[in-house]
Design brief:
Length: 191
């Protein structure tokens, strides 16, 4: 796959994800204006009903825009990972451009959990991230237990409660806090 510059990848992400979000959120403002217009021109529409419809329309627009973002950001991440040599620099640029949220803030962690990932896309992203040096050098912090087997996974942006292992098996996730925890956990498995 041909490598692209980070600015090109960010531009594509902005056109692919953020522009449709703004179009969905602000492009539908004509509907509330039509409701207000009919209210002013004598059509029978109680003020309470008109206000309810306007608020409902705003909530629907916001929800549809968020759904678009939640579905397309994971696809953009995979597309971007396939075309960059430096994911950490691209990630910083994407945060600065408002394309993705920073994992260092509470809101960023909350909003990134609304991304809608398929199991296949999560596996593909983990595979692509493992090719980047930043992720290869980090030590695994998650231990997954499936039956009597244990295996670890590199940290990702999905949160600590993943229900699908890198092998596609369903499992429970435990965070390790120290090497002592690792020793205790391995001793409990041998008993």
């Amino acid at each position: 796959m041909k490598q692209q510059s980070n600015s090109y990848i960010i531009s594509v992400g902005t056109l692919w994800v953020n522009m449709p979000v703004f179009a969905i959120m602000f492009g539908g403002w004509s509907v509330p204006l039509v409701i207000v217009h009919f209210l002013q021109n004598g059509a029978y529409l109680s003020p309470f009903l008109a206000m309810f419809l306007v608020v409902l329309w705003i909530v629907v627009q916001f929800s549809l825009a968020w759904l678009w973002w939640s579905l397309n950001i994971p696809r953009w991440r995979i597309w971007a990972l396939q075309r960059t040599n430096d994911w950490s620099a691209l990630e910083e640029s994407a945060i600065a451009a408002g394309l993705i949220w920073s994992e260092n803030s509470v809101l960023g962690r909350l909003f990134s959990r609304t991304e809608i990932w398929s199991g296949q896309n999560r596996q593909l992203e983990a595979k692509l991230k493992s090719k980047h040096s930043r992720f290869r050098l980090q030590s695994p912090i998650r231990i997954y237990r499936h039956g009597t087997r244990e295996f670890s996974m590199l940290p990702t942006q999905y949160g600590s409660r993943s229900s699908v292992s890198p092998l596609g098996e369903r499992c429970s996730c435990h965070q390790i806090q120290s090497p002592i925890d690792t020793a205790k956990r391995s001793q409990s498995l041998t008993r």
